[in-house]
Every structure is written in structure tokens, then in C-alpha cells.
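Hi, here's the filled form for the chain we discussed.

Project: internal
Contact: R.S.
Residues: 307
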Amino acid sequence: MWRMRTFARLLQAGVVGALVVAVGHGVAAGPAASAPFGQLPWPTAEPDGVQAPGAALADGVTGTVLWSREPNTSVPIASIAKVMTALVVINAGDLDRTVTVPQESIAYCTRYDGSNAGLAPGEVLTTRQLLYAMVLPSGCDAAYTLAEGYGPGQDGFIARMNGTAREMGLAGTYFTDPSGLPAPDDNSTYSTPANLLALGLRAMSLPVFREIAGSQSYHLPAGPANRDHLWQTTNQLLRTYPGTIGIKTGSTDAAGACLLFETVRAGIPLIGVVLHSSPGSGAAARDDAERMLNWAYDPILTALPIG
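And the returned structure, exactly as it came back:
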């Protein structure tokens, strides 16, 4: 349900705080700072045409939910799990540390038909480079490599993921794998729309993650211990929707097409998630996200003289 009073407070806060919000999200403050927010038209009760059975849209500063569908229902989340993998690794620090790609990472991707970053066994990359390899092309080989290096081992790393989830109060979330792929016993990593908003906000508060998640591509030239790599983002919203600054896609048979996303327009950040928008179409997840964002932003952008 649309919470008019909550959104009104968000918009009114923009009158006196748009500059703070904009700077905190790496964008310039614009005419929104002096706009007559109290005179803005209200959107309809909910966004039209959203296919995802689980979804939520929130204020990107406080995390206050503006609209949701089944916000506390736990479902598989596929590669959105890599956001937690990145969070654990970044919090560990030393992003210039080198990590060797293990042979098992390739078999791991093949076993579960997971997406990969084209890594080769024995390549040596920095943690920062592996984060790009994991987030942009959704490389399960990179996720496995990072988990192996920062665990210790897969089981140790997964325990750290779940420990971080508990510390964050994400009661509806559980990880069985650093990539979000099915575990050997076919149990999938799961979370809720509300929990994923909190995870996305935490990850995007880290400048390193925000830079990676907002990149459309990353080129790693060949070096003494690595091949040439060019990684392109799987996040279609970064290419099609103005103001998008991240975050992460996901897709498995169990999870369907999923997308965790964040945008900033008119100095107003919004964060959202759609889960199982279709059995496997990333375009369907992107379209769901656009419908939700347009529902929230269109009344604002229509009323404001955005330059």
C-alpha cells in the first residue's frame, strides 16, 4: 500500500535536505531543493502491471517502504546473494590482496550451469578485480574464488554470510552458497523483499561497492598472471533507466528473474527489488522495476522544472 504521509515527509525533507541526500549518493543537487513539494500530485494506489509476486520500493535514505507486495515472504533470490558476498569481502578489507583462481571454481560453475566471468584456473587477480568479475557479469567463478580466499573455504565463508545477516537483523534470509546457486541438497539461498532492501542499502553505503555496482563495464588488460577480460553488467536498468546507480540481477530456475536496484532522480534516491518477475527474463525484471520507479517519480518530475 502507498503510504502518502511517509512519502510526503520524504519529499518535504527534500526542501531542506536535498543537497545532503544528493551528495551522499554522489549526484548533484538540482532544482528539487526549492520545489513546492506540498503541491505535488499523488500517484495511484499502487504501480500498474508489476508481475513480480514479491517486490518492494523504499526511500533510499532511511529505507522506509513506500510500496510492497509480500515484503516478508522468503523466496529464492539467485545471484542477488552476491551482494552479501561482496559486503563480507569488502568489510574484510585489503582489496588489493591477490587471490588465485582455484580449479574447482570452473567445475562449480559447470555443475550448476552458473553464469561466469571467464576466469581460468591459476589466474591471479586482486580482490577488487574479482569483485568486478562477480558483480558485473555475475561471475559464479569469481564468487567461488572470493569465498575460498576469504572463508576459510566455502563453508567458512557461508557461515560469515549468515553471521552478517543475523547481525543485520535479516531474519528472513539464509545463505547456502556465495553465488545464490542451489546447494548440493537442492536447498536454495532465500531472502525477503524487505530484507533485501536493507542489504542493498548497507552495500550501497560502501563507496567501493557503489562504484562497482554502478559500472556498465570493466576492462582488465592481460598481465603476467591474468588473461584479458572485459566484463559487462547484466543489469539492464543501468542502460535504460535514467538515474540508475546499481545494484544486482539474479536468475535461477527456482528464483526466476530478480533485480535489486537503486536510482536517484530529482535529488531523491529510491531503492527497490523485484523477485520472480518471470521464469527467466531479465527484461521482465527490468520492466517491473521501471513501472515501480515511474509510478513514484513521474508525479515529481512532472511537477518540477528539472534542468
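Let me know if anything looks off before we file it.
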